[in-house]
Design brief:
Length: 389
């Protein structure tokens, strides 16, 4: 492939038309295999409800300094106070720092599994048990991942998942309660049908462009222009996913029945296999030009994307997107409650970490093209600029 050719590599998987009518498969991984699960429009809704369910409002929740911010907003809105612990330059949670920061005011430990890579959940479980407080596993970025043979989200008292980052669904988050302690979890109402329809059409159009090249791109552009006008004229409320902030108005929204239908029809094992294949392909072709965050892929990990450390993230993002690769700028801001000066490794991560899509929609041929474009972009980044003589 010539690097001047236009790719279309979306950051998230797209919806294939056949998935709308595919029969359900048995769910072998949480949350689908979990007996005590509730589904929501957003994973952040599950975070908010967890604070209320565990009666953490009025207390402190110990959270990682490397966070998105929306989960922290949900904790604060629910009435709890976030406190933060150290995360290293390889997403490594400093368990000793966690232990040191636990006080009598600490009411829960909050562990995030980053992009499918497991955090030290056994050590955190031990700490939580020693202090008689619950452990919350945030698996919003780690759906379908396991720590060896143990699925993520099953060790903590609560596991929280986001569906639409990993599966081609219009919305969806889940809260799973582990153990024997009973909780009365409400079944939230379904979201507006028009909003779900709008997201579904968008995912189908992305699939059209992914498969149809220039023709698909043109058709997608035409349909989008007509669709935007229709949505505006009909005053359809589109509850956007992927937003940066928690909105109390949406806290009671449940997951759409269409989302559950599409999700249950997925071949989950095949998705994990495809993501691992694509990660290994990128690792083999890029590790010599840019250090990966992880030089291996542990057993059970279903990578959300391929993370790598770069020098000029903004310039590289622009260069890749110009070539049609929707690279991801992962979590570049601290929540205001967290002091950046206290966590320099996290500040460095936010400045330098870039993520390349490696999801199940992307064939080995496409991943080869992606690797070529990324290599060329990285080399261009390092070439000295020519000065006028």
């Amino acid at each position: 492939m010539k690097t001047s050719d236009k790719l279309f590599v979306p950051s998230l998987p797209t919806l294939w038309p056949g998935m709308l009518m595919a029969p359900p498969r048995p769910g072998a991984l949480p949350p689908f295999s979990s007996p005590n699960a509730r589904y929501f429009y957003f994973a952040r809704n599950a975070v908010w409800l967890t604070m209320k369910m565990l009666r953490l409002d009025g207390g402190e929740v110990l959270m990682p300094a490397y966070h998105h911010g929306v989960e922290v907003e949900a904790v604060v809105d629910a009435g709890a106070t976030p406190r933060f612990y150290r995360v290293g330059s390889r997403w490594d949670v400093d368990v000793a720092d966690v232990a040191k920061r636990i006080t009598p005011k600490t009411r829960a430990l909050y562990l995030i599994h980053y992009a499918g890579f497991p955090g030290p959940v056994d050590a955190m479980r031990k700490l939580a048990d020693e202090h008689g407080i619950p452990l919350i596993e945030d698996c919003a970025l780690s759906l379908l991942s396991s720590d060896g043979a143990t699925p993520l989200g099953t060790t903590g008292d609560v596991g929280i998942f986001c569906l639409y980052k990993t599966l081609p669904v219009p919305n969806g988050g889940a809260l799973v309660v582990n153990g024997k302690r009973p909780y009365s979890l409400p079944e939230p109402p379904a979201p507006p049908v028009a909003s779900t329809f709008s997201h579904t059409v968008s995912a189908l159009l992305q699939n059209l462009e992914l498969r149809g090249g220039a023709v698909g791109r043109g058709l997608r552009g035409l349909v989008r222009s007509v669709g935007h006008g229709t949505v505006k004229a009909a005053s359809i409320e589109r509850v956007a996913t992927g937003t940066q902030h928690f909105d109390r108005r949406h806290v009671d929204l449940g997951m759409s029945p269409l989302t559950k239908r599409i999700a249950l029809a997925q071949d989950l094992e095949a998705i994990v296999e495809a993501r691992r294949r694509n990660y290994f392909l990128l690792l083999g072709r890029l590790r010599d030009v840019s250090p990966p965050l992880f030089n291996q892929l542990p057993a059970g990990v279903s990578p959300l994307f391929y993370p790598m450390v770069v020098q000029d993230k903004e310039a590289l993002l622009a260069r890749l997107r110009e070539k049609g690769i929707d690279a991801i700028d992962f979590w570049k801001r601290f929540h205001p409650a967290c002091d950046p000066s206290e966590f320099p490794e996290v500040a460095q991560l936010r400045r330098t970490l870039l993520e390349i899509p490696c999801h199940q929609d992307l064939s080995p041929e496409v991943m080869g093209q992606v690797a070529e474009v990324v290599r060329e972009a990285l080399k261009s980044e390092r070439r000295p600029s020519k000065r006028a003589s």
